[in-house]
Every structure is written in structure tokens, then in C-alpha cells.
Sequence to fold (429 residues):
Amino acid sequence: MQFACEPPRSGDVEIDLHPAGWRGHGHDRNPAYQIVVLHVVWEADSSAACALPTLALKSQLDSPLNELRLWLSHDSDAPGLLAGQCSAPLRDLPENILREVLQQAAHLRLQRKASEFAARARQVGWEQSLWEGLFAALGYKQNVWPMRRVAELLPLLLARELKKRGATFALQARLFGVSGLLPNELTRARASADNYLRRVWDHWWREREQFADFILPRALWRFNGLRPANHPQRRLALAAHWLDAGNLPDKLERWFSAPIADQKLEWSLLEILQAGRDDFWSWHWTLRSARMTKSQPLLGAQRVTDLAVNVVLPWFWMRAVVGKSDGLRQAAEHRYFAWPRSEDNAVLRLARQRLLGGTKAGALRTAAMQQGLLQIVRDFCAHSNALCENCRFPELVRGLNAGLQGHEINPPPKPTRDASPDNRRLDPP
Fold:
């Protein structure tokens, strides 16, 4: 920042309601606040002036404090400038019609993801395409490609002999080593992690030469803004449990063929994908993190929903389509549209504000409706700018609204309520 004609300065900014907060909170005596260069307050008070440069916001803003607090505490009440051009016509749609629009978009997203599995399965087979999809989904948006690349190497990694005893640990060492996620040295590792790290290194260095040509550069991985629970080291540790079990695709086949109530879908899949207790990873977020006071599962319910709607169900849906089994296709669609909603992510939060204006939140009651909103963002918002210039979606919604009196929109094919799959397996063609 720069004050008048003074040279630019860098440092911390302290925020209080009143200037008296600087002394009242003891900041003037706290060494941690010595690098503060600006005191931001709501209203200046000359009788309690602070020695630091002070910026009072009340005279610079055109809204009272209570109104600003309302905006900041309710993300549904987005300022008008944040709303997209489609927000007004979408607000005019009856909620049931809005759900139909989102359902159509969700069905399109299901087809698109399923077609990607079909294309990959033609090259490597259905089972390998499933593993690549699962690994990529564990990579989140930052690390999709490197996680997928590790999955592409699985035939090579699994072809080399593994000792049956301690196979999960051996797989973890291989995955960490090939991914390039092992630290370069151990001297700074915490004592609680050092033993596990040293064992991993001892195992990996005996195998490193035979996999040297396939090790990923560490620079491929992105860690900024990543929650510790989503760290790729922890996700690869989970994948090692799946691989060691050796029967994950078969378990998923049985899960898909079993009659399961809609309200139990999420937990029934979590039971399959959740790994058992891990002596190290149940207590650590990363290879270098301190031991947690309470053990944590390697997979949570929210991530199971992402795996279901982005990988597992599209994979089964496309196999049913290729196998020309209408009953199994409808079963996959039924579970896809019945799956409970997941937590918001940054894209969904912004889309709800810009497209829906925070209203009609009830339209996003399921994970499929969230997927539909993401598909609209992909098809329209991603091809326009922040001002929605040249975006066709607002006009399409206006046309839909205008034609509601005399026409009905055609929803995607809906599965029957009794859409439980039969006991046949989805054999690849």
C-alpha cells in the first residue's frame, strides 16, 4: 500500500470497529502486531486516535453497517451486480419447471461423463477405466491429471510381485514413490511420522530403479487451498487399501445389483469404499503432519457423493447402455437422480448467487440438481464473461417462460419408482 507520496509499504492490516480497539485489545503491547501498517475501523474517533495510519470506512461507503452485515451474513442475498443476466428470467420460472430444466442438464452431464468412460474402456477395458475415474475424482480440481496418471500406471505397479503380508503398506510406498510425493529428506519430519516415513523410504528405495522411468515430477501437484483431508498423499493411501482388497469392482457390482432404499444409498456405498483402520493414516493428514488426537476416517460421506455421481453411476449407466439393458440403465438413472445433495463447493456457491440469486434453493435438493447447475455453468457461463455478453441462456429461459402457457417442456426419461436392478451382472460387451 502507499500513503500519499510516500514509498510503497507492505505489512499487516488490523480491523476494528473503533480506533480504541488498538489499545483496548492490547495490540500496542503485542510484538506480533509490530508489522501492522494500517488500522481499518468503521468510524473514526479523534479522542482515541491510534498512532498507526487509520482508514475509517463509514464515510467511504453508501450503506449502513446493518445492511452490510446482512449482505455478508446471507450469501443468498447477493448484491444485484453479482446476479447474471439469466437470474431474472430464472426467478420467474415456476419451481417445478426450474427443477425440470436442472434435471435435463443433469441428465446431459450424466451422458457426457458416461461417454468418457466408454471411450476410455475401448482402449483399456471397463475395469481399468473405473480405476482411472476413481483416482481422478480423488484428485479434486487441483490434481485430477496427476492422480489419473498414477492410475494409468496401475497395470505396471500391480504386475510386480507384492508380499501378501503388508501388501497395503507396500502399495502405499509404490504409489507415493511413483507419484513423486515422498519428501526429499527425513531430518525435519516429526517424530510421530518418522518411523512410518523411514519404512516407506526403505521399501521404496529397494524398488525405485525398476520404476524410475515413470516417476512423476513433484511440480505437477498443486497444494494451494487444499484441505488437509484432501491431500493427495492421504488419497493415495486410501487407494492402496482398495487395491489391496482386490475385489472393489466386484463389490460395486453387488452393490449396484442389490435393492437399496434411496435414503440408504450414500451410506451403503460409503461402507464399500471406506477403508479399514490404518495404523498411520487414521491418525495423520499427510506424511509430515502431527498425530491427531482422534482418529479420522480415510473417506467421508461428501466425497462418496462425488464419487457416486461423477464416477460409479456414470460407469454403470454406460455399461447398461452398451449392453442394451434398459432395466439396468433406468436403475442407474434412478440412483443418480435420487442421490442426496452434497455440500457446496466454490463453483456451486457462485452459480447459486449469479444464476438463482439465492432464491428457489429448494430446487437443489439432490446431487443431480447440483450437477445440472454445474452443467449449465459449463455449457454457458464458461463461454461468456462476467457481464454475460453473448450468452444464449438468458434468452432460452425467457423463451421457455413465454411458452409455458401453451407448451410443455420435455423432461429427460424418468426411471420408474421400482427401478432396482435385477441380479444380472453388467458383463462388458
